[in-house]
Structures are given as structure tokens and as C-alpha cells.
Amino acid sequence: MTSFDPIPWEQTTAVVLASQPSTEKDPGGQQEDFGKSSPLGLLILVLFFIAVVFLVKSMNKHLRKLPASFDKTEAKTDDNGKKE
């Protein structure tokens, strides 16, 4: 079999299933620093929450300024059909 011959589907699947990655050297990223965070991370998280609070307050202030409805009312007209 040369390198240009296609491999049948059944053999390809068996090769893929037979070559599972080894977890002996790397236990899935769970080394001694896994799950630990620094105080800087907590500070950044608190700053994000404070920013969200101010953004929500600002959004509510702007939403209160909006009219209850955006439906256009008919403009008043005089006897000649002109708008006032």
C-alpha cells in the first residue's frame, strides 16, 4: 500500500478510536495552580459589577425620559385644511 492509496473508512475509524490521548503526563490541566485566583482577579470582577450598576442606573434614567408611546397623533387643522 502506497501513501497515496485511500484508507477504507472502517480502518480510519479504528485508528482514531485506538489513539486516545494519554493523561499520565497531563492530568487535564489540573496542576498545583488549578482553581486558584489572585486578588487582582477579584478586584477586576468587583469593578465590573460596579460598572454594570452605573450603566443600569444610566439606562433607567434615559428610559424614563422616553414617551409612553411613539404613535403619531394627527395634527390639528383649521377650516382651510392648513396645519396649525
Write up what this structure looks like.
With 84 residues, the chain is mainly alpha-helical. The chain has a domain at 39-65. Helices cover 43% and strands 0% of the residues. The protein contains two helices and no strands. It has helices spanning 9-18, 39-64. The longest helix is centred in the middle third of the chain and has 26 residues, at 39-64. It is elongated. The chain starts with 8 loop residues before the first helix and ends in a 20-residue tail after the last helix. The model has no long low-confidence stretch (mean pLDDT 77).
Please work out how many helical segments DSSP would assign: 2
Structural Rg: 34 Å
Global structural class: mainly alpha
**Topology as a string of helices (H) and strands (E):** HH
Strand proportion: under 5%
Number of distinct beta strands: 0
Mean pLDDT: 77
- How helical, in percent, are the residues? 40-55%
Alpha carbon gap, first and last residue: 92 Å
Largest sheet: none
Coarse shape = elongated
Unreliable stretches (pLDDT < 50, length at least 5) are none
Short note summarizing the structure:
The chain is mainly alpha-helical. It is 43% helix and 0% strand. The chain is built from 2 helices and no strands.
What are its keywords?
single chain, transmembrane, 2 helices, membrane, 84 residues, mainly alpha, transmembrane helix
